[in-house]
Write a sequence for this structure.
DNA sequence: GAGTGGTCTAGACCACTGC
DNA sequence: CAGTGGTCTAGACCACTCG
């Protein structure tokens, strides 16, 4: 219960060099992230109330509030008035389209279904190692799957995972799991994807992908490379997807 | 100076139906947006200090602060500690890549240059009318331009603008203007783009675009359709771009 | 009604900028 | 130094949820 002793309050006349000033609420925020990372709080859980946290950390409620505000803005926490503050989870189906920015060109929401094709172990090549922050020839797990929208294949993904964490994934587990892949990672491996970077290019369909996506070989596809990060900005997934944009498009908001 | 009389404070026992509760700071925010819209404050201007606004609106500084916080988060305002709060502007070169999410596959930042090709008037077709919130055969202005990265053509854009606002744009004006297109719109026409939606697909290069982008006809290109909005979520630009992703990629962060 | 998050206030003080 | 935004506090009260 002495987790807050290291807190550094604002200084009137800075005797210490004060190299990088960090406001109290950011320190509180870091402590909260620490609890999320450590698994003390699990996705879906309620966290203690603002006033209780304020007591624990010996700061005012407003300071805790500001810390939580930022974490809620980053989608790590979710506030629900009258109920409490919850750890965000990919089990919530609304979280699904936060990472999959694909929408039908016409018509409303469509049913999606993930169909795992293969799952095998390998050693990281230089590219995968770089993307995942591993050393070359570290163990990795690779998954291939197709994503259907309204029973038609639209995306084929090849997913590279650090073997140290995801060494036990099998095709059967993937087939049996009801829910999204990130929900699977969260519930079976305790890894929560928090943030991702995507790099998009237009490419020509190779023979294999063309067949899987039921398009002509050589027709244009959207190549989407994604690196997903867990709590401490730790990369834990690298995937390359090919999206058929015949009936769908990648939607993006620029704020 | 009585701009705040309509403010509705929280009610203890709501006698009125109170159909949609709106906190004070959101009402303040709306009033601030109104001033931005009306042109009372121009891009790049300093706005009054928090304490002065608090006096004007007869609320506490904290309430004004929260309103400004949201506007800063939406990139309508920019706070600078010690200096003041400023109206965001596209003149700032850092704002350039907020709407152009294209980065080189290898290497650092590259010089960009916009080369206007054509500019003509037309009547809105059904699609342009729908996108821009106009009626069919309303006047529109169309601009075609190529964007170079490091002296190589990478993007070709066709830009549709409401004629009512942009009827006076000429090729010469575009050629003479130093700065980004959005900076041009802002300074010459008082229209500030605040937000945009993009829809991406992979397509095959037609003959004309292939020539302009110096790629093979039929090679894959990234099609980027964008609708840009001004202050009151008013659509004021519709553009279709074709991006060559041979040496560049579209970068996106998923929060 | 108790408990939670959400709003609003008033005041003190810190950090930064520029004169 | 004055003026700005940024932090922190303490307290009052509102809006929402649930038993």
């Amino acid at each position: 219960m002495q987790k807050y002793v290291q807190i550094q309050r604002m200084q009137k006349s800075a005797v210490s060099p004060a190299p990088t000033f960090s406001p109290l609420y950011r320190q509180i925020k870091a402590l909260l992230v620490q609890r999320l990372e450590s698994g003390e709080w699990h996705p879906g859980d309620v966290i203690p109330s603002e006033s209780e946290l304020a007591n624990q950390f010996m700061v005012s409620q407003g300071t805790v509030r500001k810390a939580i505000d930022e974490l809620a803005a980053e989608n790590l926490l979710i506030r629900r008035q009258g109920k409490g503050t919850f750890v965000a989870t990919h089990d919530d189906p609304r979280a699904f389209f936060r990472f999959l920015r694909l929408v039908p060109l016409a018509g409303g929401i469509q049913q999606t279904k993930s169909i795992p094709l293969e799952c095998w172990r390998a050693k990281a090549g230089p590219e995968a190692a770089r993307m995942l922050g591993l050393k070359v020839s570290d163990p990795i797990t690779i998954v291939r799957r197709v994503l259907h929208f309204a029973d038609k294949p639209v995306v084929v993904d090849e997913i590279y995972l650090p073997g140290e964490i995801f060494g036990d994934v099998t095709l059967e587990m993937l087939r049996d799991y009801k829910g999204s892949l990130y929900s699977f990672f969260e519930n079976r491996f305790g890894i929560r994807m928090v943030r991702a970077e995507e790099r998009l290019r237009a490419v020509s369909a190779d023979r294999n992908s063309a067949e899987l996506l039921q398009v002509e070989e050589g027709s244009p596809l959207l190549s989407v490379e994604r690196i997903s990060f867990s709590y401490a900005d730790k990369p834990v997934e690298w995937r390359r997807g090919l999206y058929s944009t015949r009936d769908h498009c990648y939607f993006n908001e620029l704020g």
